[in-house]
């Protein structure tokens, strides 16, 4: 009987720890987006550096890649803002 009670206490304790330390909704998604934002910024920095030594005929490819990354960066920022507003609702704008 004592072993069963001991087992129930352990199960209750473990489940309460799991519930107490769960992530907030969207936190892993937010982490992924922040990581992607950093990757995009690093890649854009590398492309800007490549402009110092890339031949003129290859520059349009770099420009296009930078524009594509800029669009993706804007999408990531908008998604981060949406997640933040969903998790921390504030006063509404008029």
Q: What is the string of SSEs from the N terminus onward?
A: HHH
Number of helices: 3
Largest sheet: none
Structural class computed from helices and strand pairing:
mainly alpha
Shape call: elongated
Number of domains: 1
Low-pLDDT regions: none
Total number of strands = 0
Helix content: over 70%
Average pLDDT for all residues: 81
Our Rg estimate from Cα atoms comes to 24 Å
Q: What is the beta-strand fraction?
A: under 5%
Cα distance, first to last residue?
64 Å
Provide structural commentary.
The protein is an all-alpha fold and 94 residues long. It has one domain (25-94). The protein has three helices and no strands. The protein has helices at 2-20, 27-50, 59-87. α2 runs antiparallel to α3.
Compact description:
With 94 residues, the protein is an all-alpha fold.
Question: Helices and strands in order, then pairings?
Answer:
Elements: H1 2-20, H2 27-50, H3 59-87
Helix pairs in contact: 2-3
Key structural traits:
94 residues; mainly alpha; 3 helices
